[in-house]
Structure formats: C-alpha cells, structure tokens
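step=encode ok
step=design start
structure_in=
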C-alpha cells in the first residue's frame, strides 16, 4: 500500500478542507489612505457613505425645453415663448408663468418648471416653441438623489475596488479611500529537474512553468510577491527557503515537494519548523496539498503538476488570499448546465474538469471538456474557461445536468 493512501491519514473532502484553511486565518492588519487614482484594485477597509445627494438638484435628463404642465393648452398646439436658456453647470431664474426655458442635459430644472419636453418633439420659430405632445409632470427630469441619497452606503468594507467603484466614490466628492495594505506572498519552487525558460534543456529536465503561472495568478489578485525562485531538492534547502519566505511575507506558497516520495521535503519541513494543519485531499487534480503555519505565517504547498497548481490555486489559495486581504467573498457557486460529454468512470475523489461552454446543434450552451484531463496537460487550463465539478462516485452521460464554475468566480 502506498503511504499516501494509508488509512491512518484519511483524505479530506473539498468542503471540509476549505473550511479548515479559512478557520486558521484572519485579515492582515494595516490600513492606508490612498488617493482615488491609486486605489484601483485595492481592498476597501471601511464602509463608505455619501454625504451629498447625487444629483444634488433636479436636473434635465436630455436637451429640450422645461415648462409647467399647467400651461398646456386644453386642445390643439401649445405655444410657449422661450424666456431663458440654461446650460449644464448654470442655474436659471424662476420660470415665468406661460413660458419655457431652453435647457440642456444635466442643467438644473428652474423653479416653477415641472417637466421637460425633448427638443425633437417641438418646433422653434421666433424664439417660441409649439408642440402637440402632452408630457406629464416629471417627464425627463432626474430628481435630486435619483442615483444616491445623502447618508446611504455606497461601498461596503471588503470590496476590491473596480473602476466603477472609484467613479462612484468620486461622484460623491471623495478624494481618497482607506484600503487594506497589500498582502505579501512569498513563493519558491522545488525540483532539480526544473530549468528557467531561455536556458538549454538537458535530458530529463523541463522548463519551470509553475513559477510563471503562480506569479501571474498572485498578481491578478493584487498581491505583492517575494520570489525566491528555484530551491534545491534537499530538506535543508527547503527549510531555509521556508524560514526566509515566512520572515518576509504574510503567506508562503510553494509548488512541488508535498507528496510522499524520497525527494518530497515540503511537508516534512513544515512539520519540523511549524504546524501542519492539513494534508492530502479527496479531490482530483490536487490530492497532495499541505497547509500549515511557520512563525505565524500561513503556508500552503501545492502539488507540482501544472494543472494541479492551477486548480488548487483557484480552489484553495484564492479564498485564502481573499480572507487575508479582508475581502468580502463567497464560495463559488456552480452554474447548472447540460453536460456535452460522457463521464463513465466514477472516482472516489471530487473531480474538477477543465471545461468551457459551447453552443450545441440546437444553440443551447453545453459544457464541453478538454479531451485530455491529465494533470500535466497545461493546455487544458488555457483552452478551458472554468471547471465542471463532478461529485465523488458520480458518472455522467451527455445531457445530464452538471455544475460549471467559471475561472472568473475564483480569480476576480
């Protein structure tokens, strides 16, 4: 029997493993006030309320003419002289009875006016408008506070700030926002067979794709990175790298060395230097995964296969990082879709197949999977746009319902 499958150390189910990871974490302290132009992608540290109405006054929703519906003719055409002109950014005088004001989009509605008619619906001659349309009071008027009312919450603590969030903050006059300091993630990689791209490969060597995949994933989540590069395949070298990374970072992530082979040192190093909270999962790909702490720094060791790195990062490292960042996040929810494939062989582990949605012959979106689901086939992660989740022990036939998890749910 392989040591990895000994009954003394049972495999941990996906949901239980995720709960276990999160239970050991809390948001990394540290808050800075950043100008809006520098806050994009940061995590908001305090809920924000508006101090003003937006818009601040009733204003016109389009170019046209403002008047009072009490001045509408009872029958036939309504004829009104134009008594003033109001552009955006300027305030008009109180509207004289029986007149209209030429008004432009965004301009304040003058006192005594209660409707705006579009310029396309009127005829203008000798500074007088005429029309047959009978607009109702309130037409084409955006009331004060139509978008935001003073005192209302505009942004919740834990939001990772997007362009539209920054714009919303600006719309209520905020110049800066309090954001959590970025978390620092240390990373290193084990495997004497690994070579940096650009170097010549000797027999038995491969290029280190994991370093570049992991770097890109961490950057996409807004992390600062401490990259220690390749580490020798010895226990002492692994322990040295762990200590260095844990001293510089809030989280340490590695690839490789977490299984049970003679050259797999990561798990042993964690146990010797700190605490091992979790190891070996009932998922595919990604069974060997180690999580623990070294000097109060969270540590997660991912498998070495390229697909396993990508999958376990999405499933476990993403929620771990979001927790440390203080973000509001929820466990991704599968989208029910129709399977466009057969899956006849059940597995005792929960499977996450690289997939994407494509239209079938009837135009319905169905889930297709990459034909080669081997954990070494990195092409499958590029071709795919998400995972199809298959529960333990389940088989599928084309047409069955499955849960589809877009990559974006993890990597937003």
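sequence_out=
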């Amino acid at each position: 029997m392989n040591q990895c499958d000994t009954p003394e150390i049972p495999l941990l189910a996906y949901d239980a493993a995720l709960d276990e990871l999160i239970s050991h974490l809390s948001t990394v302290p540290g808050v800075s006030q950043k100008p809006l132009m520098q806050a994009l992608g940061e995590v908001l540290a305090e809920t924000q309320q508006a101090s003003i109405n937006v818009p601040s006054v009733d204003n016109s929703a389009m170019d046209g003419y403002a008047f009072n519906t009490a001045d509408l003719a009872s029958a036939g055409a309504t004829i009104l002289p134009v008594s003033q002109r109001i552009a955006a950014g300027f305030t008009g005088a109180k509207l004289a009875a029986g007149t209209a004001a030429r008004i432009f989009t965004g301009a304040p509605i003058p006192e005594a006016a209660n409707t705006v008619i579009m310029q396309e619906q009127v005829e203008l001659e000798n500074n007088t408008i005429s029309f047959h349309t009978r607009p109702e009071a309130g037409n084409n008027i955006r009331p004060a506070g139509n978008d935001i009312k003073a005192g209302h919450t505009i942004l919740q603590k834990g939001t990772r700030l997007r362009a539209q969030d920054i714009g919303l903050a600006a719309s209520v006059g905020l110049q800066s926002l309090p954001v959590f300091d970025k978390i620092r993630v240390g990373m290193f990689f084990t495997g004497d067979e690994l070579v940096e791209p650009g170097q010549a490969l000797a027999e038995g060597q491969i290029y280190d794709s994991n370093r570049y995949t992991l770097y890109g994933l961490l950057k996409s989540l807004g992390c600062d990175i401490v990259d220690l590069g390749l580490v020798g395949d010895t226990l002492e070298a692994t322990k040295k790298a762990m200590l260095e990374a844990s001293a510089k970072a809030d989280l340490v992530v590695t690839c490789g060395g977490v299984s049970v082979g003679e050259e797999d040192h990561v798990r042993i190093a964690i146990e010797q230097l700190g605490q091992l909270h979790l190891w070996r999962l009932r998922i595919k790909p990604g069974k060997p995964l180690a999580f623990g702490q070294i000097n109060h720094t969270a540590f997660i060791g991912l498998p070495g296969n390229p697909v396993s790195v990508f999958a376990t990062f999405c499933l476990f490292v993403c929620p771990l990082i979001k927790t440390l960042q203080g973000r509001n996040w929820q466990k991704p929810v599968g989208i029910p879709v129709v399977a466009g494939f057969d899956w006849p062989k059940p597995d005792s582990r929960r499977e996450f197949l690289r997939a994407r949605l494509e239209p079938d012959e009837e135009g319905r979106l169905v889930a297709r999977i990459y034909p080669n689901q081997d954990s070494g086939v990195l092409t499958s992660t590029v071709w795919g746009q998400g995972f199809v989740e298959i529960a333990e022990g389940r088989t599928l036939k084309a047409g069955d319902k499955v849960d589809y998890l877009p990559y974006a749910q993890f990597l937003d």
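step=design ok
step=annotate ok -> DSSP finds eight helices and 26 strands in the chain.
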